[in-house]
Amino acid sequence: MNEEIKSLGELEVATSTAEAVIEMAAPREPQRDDLGRAYATGKRKDAVARVWIKPGSGKVVVNDKDLNTYFARPVLQMILRQPFQVAGVEDQFDVKVTVKGGGLSGQAGAVKHGISKALQFYDPELRGALKAAGFLTRDSRVVERKKYGKRKARRSFQFSKR
């Protein structure tokens, strides 16, 4: 009986300290510049995207071109719209993107990562949905380098016994 009372006392102390730690953790603050924009950098493969978002009508400009012009494939356009759909803020933000490096697929992934981070900076309440969908995690897969003595990264020359 004494052990139960002792463990209950320890449990109350533990929960009170946990609550104190939670209270001490400051809530995230929105990070916006003087013009009311949020900025983030997204990366995927060799592509790096600089993304600015601000409240607007849902217009997306990539490297001074319209979204449908720069990313002509519907799959790439869908990738860019995913963060807005998950966060439930479709057609509420204007997006300006500068993206360099890699191919179109890597660039689309970089822009998606940048948009997700910028949304989270603009409104920290959206972080939970974006993180649960895995959009805030940088996809670290990159092309493996070619090794000497090999035809490609791992592919060897054809073996000939004679």
Q: Helices and strands in order, then pairings?
A:
Layout: H1 2-24, E1 38-44, E2 47-55, E3 60-62, E4 65-66, H2 67-70, H3 74-87, E5 93-100, H4 104-122, H5 127-132
Parallel strand pairs: 3-5
Antiparallel strand pairs: 1-2, 2-5, 3-4
Helix pairs in contact: 3-4
Q: Could you explain how this protein is built, in words?
A:
- By secondary structure, the protein is α+β, with helices and mostly antiparallel strands.
- A hairpin with a 2-residue loop joins strand 1 and strand 2.
- The protein starts with a helix and ends in a 30-residue tail after the last helix.
Q: What is the CA-atom radius of gyration, in angstroms?
A: 23 Å
Number of separate strands: 5
User: First CA to last CA: what distance?
Assistant: 84 Å
SS content category: alpha+beta
Order of helices and strands: HEEEEHHEHH
- In one word, what is the shape? elongated
Estimate what percentage of residues fall within beta strands: 15-25%
